[in-house]
Structure formats: C-alpha cells, structure tokens
Design brief:
With 494 residues, the protein is mainly α. It has a domain of 199 residues. Helix content is 75%, strand content 3%. A two-stranded antiparallel sheet has the order 1-2. The two termini are 39 Å apart. The mean pLDDT is 87.
C-alpha cells in the first residue's frame, strides 16, 4: 500500500491538465491540436493511477487510501477521501471511458476544441471526487457540480434542440439534488457528523428514516434514471455529442446506483426495506415499458437511451433484494452497462460522423460496406441482450436469481425485459446492418485505425467480464457482504 495521496492525485491531475490547456497559445489549429494531446495524455496518466490503485488495494471490503483534512472544524466538515471495492470500480470505469471520449471527439469536434477538452477533464475530476468522497458535504459538492460541465457539453456542442435538452437535464437533476441536500443536513444534525464511514452504521430513528428516504430516492432515481423520472434522458442523449452520450450513459447514470448502494440502503435500512415493494414495481415498469417504447424508435440514439432505462431497472431491482447475488449482479450490471452502452453510442457516432444521420431508416446493408463495423456492433448488441459469454449476461442472471428468491412473479416479469431487449436490439441490427444496401449510405467507409483502437478495449472488457466475471466481482464482493451483514444486524430483511 502506498502512503502518497493517490486519490487526490487522481482528482486534481485532470484539473491541472485543464489549466494547462487554458494556457496554450498559438494559432487556432495549434491550440486545437495541442489541447487534444494534453487532454489525452492527462486522462491516460489518471487511468494508470486508477489501475495501480486497483492492483494494490486489498479486497477485504474496508476503506483504503484514506486522506483527511479539516476544512471547518466547528461543524465537522472535512476533506475526507477513501475508496472500497464498490467505489473503486466506478473510478476505474470513469478513468477508462474518458480517454476513449477524447479519442472519439478527435475529428468530430471542430469548434471550441480547447473549451471542450477543458470541460471533459473537469468532468473527470468531479466524477472521481464523487466516488472518493467520504464526507457528506464534500460528496454533495462533487455530486452537484457534475451538472455544470455536462450542461455545457450538451448545450454548446449538441444537436438542434440542445438548449432545450440541456435545461431539461439541468432542472431535473437540480430539483432532486435540493431534496438530497435537505436530507443530508437533517441526517448530519441527528448523527452529529458528516463522516460517511460513521453514518454507514448509524442508528437513525425509524420514523425519521421514512421521511428522509424519499428525498434520497428522488435524487438518485432521477440520476439513474428510474421510471417515471427518466424523460430527460432520451432528449439529453439525442442532442448530446457522441462523447457526451458516452460519458452520460457510461458513468453519470451510475452515480444514481452508487447513491443507492452507498447512502440509501446502508444509512436508511429500515426505510429501504419498507419502500422496497415500491422500488420493485417501478423497476419492473421501467424494464417492460421502456423496452416497448424502444421498439417504436427510429432514432438509434433514442432507442439506446430507452434501453438504458430498462437496463438500469435491473440494477435497482437487484440492489433492493438485499441479497448477495442481487447486489453483486447490480454492481456487475452497472459496470457492463457502462461499457456496452458507451460502446453502442460510439457505434452510432461512427455512422453519424460519416452520414450525419442517426435515423434507422437511412441505413441498411452496412455489412456489405462495413464488415468490421458490423462485427463490432454485433458483439456489443449481443452483450446488451445478455448473451452468455458476454458481460451483459452475468449481471442480469444474478439479479434474476435474487429476484426469484423474493418472488417468482417478480422474476417472471423481469425476465420479460430480456425478451423485449432481444426484440428491439435484433430488429435494430437487421434494419441497419443486414438486408440490401440503402442508396442513402453511398460510398461509406469502414472503421479506421483510430476507431479500431477505441473499440478494441471495449470488446476485450465485454468478453473478459462475460468469460471470467469473478475477476471483477471479487473486487466488491466483500464490501457488499459487509453492507448486508450491517443491514442484518440493524434490521431483519425478509
């Protein structure tokens, strides 16, 4: 174990990278080129640090790489950092996707490149800080600040309705965050601390838990997003640039799931069990309803956005089973969805960069012109369906096992979502990739070397998790086991 502040380094290196980019001078072409290079190398350094943390950290479920500095001692506010197996995998997911986002934007972003790269590095800083924070107020600052760079990325570099989508995203998430702020102030007042490690095992009165939990729930449900708080997501995805959609689907949606497993469930165990039936109902509705909506879409981005809501429905279902298999499955599903959804949006971005269209009806027969692309797209699509041997299968399988232990009909209705997912994804593949060549595609080119190296690590991870999931599940199993044991000590979970 290292004694140097590796978490602070991971948080602030992207921030300093953003400062360096802001100081780059020269003509516009030079500024653009150097900004991309600095952003890429900065993100790769952070990726290396996160991998080092993963290799060196024990898997016993405790918090490591602890850092603490008093900020306002009178109220107990501290700069308090630390990671366990749960938070570290989300940091890895963030640091893995940011370099891919920068590479994906290499040619597609042609104006205000400097500002774009600065915002992505600031976004990485805030994401890592969110998953590292062990102080409630510090977590809230990082959590809430995520809105700003994402709002600007959508609002400046997005599509024709980018302003509407950006404001809708901002207002939805801000509204939920205000409730969360009130709840954490009340909780801290009762517990007399902002230290998350203490609050994880705090005995908050049951009546108060029933009032606090809905505030937590609304905030994290909007971020996830759960039905019926999901309406901002399709608009945001459709209008966001490709890299914006990648980081939004890949990491930002996971902040909601992280909030449930880090705050709602361990800090408010009685209320979590009390409201679990509500979560089951909303999760099943999300799985079935948004899958049916996805079947009706002609915009590829919107279809993938609705599929994300369905997949995150499995996550919330698994988390609130309060069982080892379900929570392991939910974590695995979040990792898999972060990789697969990011990859699918990148696939759409490849087509959009060539033909400036996301409409399914504008494509067809791409396998004849883009065979490499067709193969890559098929791998990610099959993982999204949950084909055995891919990452998508592992999480959904564990969640369904856990759901069956709760109620047979809960597992049955949840399983319908897998069938519907196969329907809309295979239908998408048939219309875009197979069949006769659509005259609209013209002389479209296959993926180039840059795009190949973007897709390669994603393909490797999809197959790695699918074939050898234990290598990932072992990282957070003990953390989840400690959480479940703590729940069982404070409340009997049926």
């Amino acid at each position: 174990m290292t004694n140097w502040p590796i978490l602070s380094l991971m948080i602030f290196i992207p921030f300093f990278g953003a400062i360096i980019i802001s100081l780059i001078g020269g003509d516009p072409k030079t500024v653009s080129s150097n900004s991309k290079i600095v952003a890429l190398w900065t993100s790769l350094v952070v990726l290396i640090l996160s991998i080092f943390s993963w290799i060196t950290m024990p898997t016993d479920g405790e918090f490591y790489f602890l850092e603490e500095l008093d900020l306002i001692s009178s109220i107990g506010l501290s700069y308090r950092l630390g990671v366990d197996g749960i938070s570290l995998v989300f940091i890895l997911l963030s640091t893995f996707l940011v370099p891919l986002c920068i590479l994906a934007s290499w040619k597609s972003i042609t104006f205000r490149v400097r500002e774009y790269m600065i915002l992505f590095l600031i976004l990485e800083t805030l994401l890592i800080g969110t998953f590292c924070a062990l102080d409630l107020i510090l977590f809230y600052i990082f959590f809430e600040s995520l809105l700003i760079p994402m709002f600007l990325i959508i609002g400046i570099w997005g599509g024709p309705r980018r302003v509407y989508a950006a404001f809708k995203f901002f207002l939805y998430t801000l509204g939920g965050s205000v409730l969360f702020l009130i709840a954490i102030i009340v909780m801290a007042n009762v517990s007399e601390t902002f230290d998350i490690r203490i609050l994880l095992n705090a005995n908050i009165p049951e009546t108060l838990q029933l009032w606090l939990w809905p505030a937590f729930f609304v905030s994290f449900a909007i971020k996830t997003p759960m039905w019926p708080f999901h309406t901002w997501l399709p608009d945001a995805h459709v209008e966001a640039p490709t890299a914006g959609s990648v980081i939004l689907a890949g990491v930002l949606l996971k902040v909601g799931g992280y909030g449930f497993i880090r705050f709602s469930i361990p800090m408010l165990p009685y209320a979590s069990e009390y409201y679990s039936l509500l979560v089951y109902v909303l999760s099943v509705i999300a799985i079935i309803y948004t899958s049916l909506v996805a079947l009706m879409q002609n915009d590829m981005k919107k279809l993938i956005a609705y599929s994300s809501v369905a997949h995150m429905g499995y996550v919330t279902l698994g988390l609130f089973t309060f069982k080892q298999e379900g929570m392991d499955g939910a974590m695995t599903q979040m990792i898999s969805h972060g990789i697969v959804s990011a990859a699918l949006f990148l696939c759409v971005g490849v087509l959009y960069d060539r033909k400036n269209s996301r409409l399914i009806s504008d494509y067809g027969g791409l396998v004849l012109r883009m065979p490499k692309y067709a193969l890559v797209f098929m791998i990610f699509l099959l993982s999204s369906i949950g084909l055995p041997g891919t990452s998508g299968f592992v999480g959904e399988f564990l969640i369904l096992i856990s759901a069956y232990q709760i109620n047979e009909f809960l597992a049955l209705f949840s399983g319908v979502g897998i069938i519907l997912g196969a329907c809309y994804m295979l239908w998408l593949y048939k219309r875009v990739i197979l069949g006769s060549i659509n005259k609209k595609i013209g002389d479209i080119s296959d993926i180039d070397i840059r795009e190949f190296f973007i897709f390669l690590p994603l393909v490797v991870l999809v197959l790695w998790i699918g074939i050898y999931p234990e290598s990932f599940i072992s990282e957070y199993r003990e953390s989840i086991s400690n959480l479940i044991n703590s729940l069982n000590e404070r409340i009997v979970i049926q």
